Amino acid sequence: MSQSVTSAANTDSASDGLQALGLALPELRDNPYYVHHRTVGSSIYISGQLPYKDGWLLGQGTVGRDVELETAQELARHAALNCLAAAVQAVGDLDRVRIVQMLVFVASTPDFGEQSNVANAASELLIEVLGENGRHARTAIGVAGLPLNSPVEIQMVCTAV
């Protein structure tokens, strides 16, 4: 992560931080087979989110073969944004969200080896938006394939603050 990460700590709220980045939380479409989040106590379990925007999957393919690192990083940012939208559905306000753990799946070739660099883009977004509440434990895993041939999927555990 770069040393020049600006965060919501420099703004009035996490929503202001999001807006300063030119981003808005997307609306998540309901799915008949699963929920986007499940709350247990103050913990919020976010279902795996793909890089959808306005109902469209933003990319398909395997990182290291069909998808470049920079594209995968942008897709990871979109998936993280969808996770934030699910967290806000659960708690009602972005300022009440603290990321505990993020699990990043990257559909990649066996020799790719830069899954953590894909995940860094999502981590950076969370810190830019949430400040210290965006820092988290994290795992980045290379996998053979993901739903709908998506290059990236992100799952999170959050807590309400």
Automatic annotation (TrEMBL):
Gene3D superfamilies linked to this entry: RutC-like
UniProt name for this protein: RidA family protein
Q: Name one Pfam family in it.
A: YjgF_endoribonc
Against InterPro entries, the record matches this protein to: Endoribo_LPSP/chorism_mut-like, RutC-like_sf
Q: Where is the Endoribonuclease L-PSP/chorismate mutase-like domain?
A: 18-152
Please name the PANTHER family in this protein's record: ENDORIBONUCLEASE L-PSP_CHORISMATE MUTASE-LIKE DOMAIN-CONTAINING PROTEIN, ENDORIBONUCLEASE-RELATED
The record's listing under SUPFAM superfamilies reads:
YjgF-like
